[in-house]
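User: Here's a chain of 157 residues. Predict its fold as tokens.
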Amino acid sequence: MPKNYLKVRPSSIEGSGAFALRRIPKGTRIIEYTGERITSVLAQSRYGVDDRYEKDFDEEPHVYLFTVDDDTIIDGSVDGSDARFINHSCDPNCEAVIENRRIYIEALRKIEEGEELTFDYQLDIGSDVTDEDKQRYACCCGAANCRGTMLAPLKRK
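Assistant: Prediction complete.
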């Protein structure tokens, strides 16, 4: 991944976003999601996380936690790469790929120069999702197929 594929600037989706500096072919590994590797216990302590929520939005509106596995979370707010600025979309042009306990962002399709990079966060807070949860994790992507939330679609039994 020697090339720099993105630039961070203001986004119409939310806050700052990551935008393609050049055309990016489908399948390209764009950037690694980096930051401090911490345990879920430390994440809970650091961000007021409880068993149901990724973060306490009233205390810290931007937490860049990315779960690698049951034991490891990457906190992108501590020495993190610009990947932490990639916004959520229900119709993403990128996906997160976990390989050898590292997280990479790869292009799902050809991305044009200047296009905002996005991936579907698919946040998982458990099976008892309330209307308050949907509000807390509201989506601002504006896609035609927007679910209205950054939460993962519920799996049907």
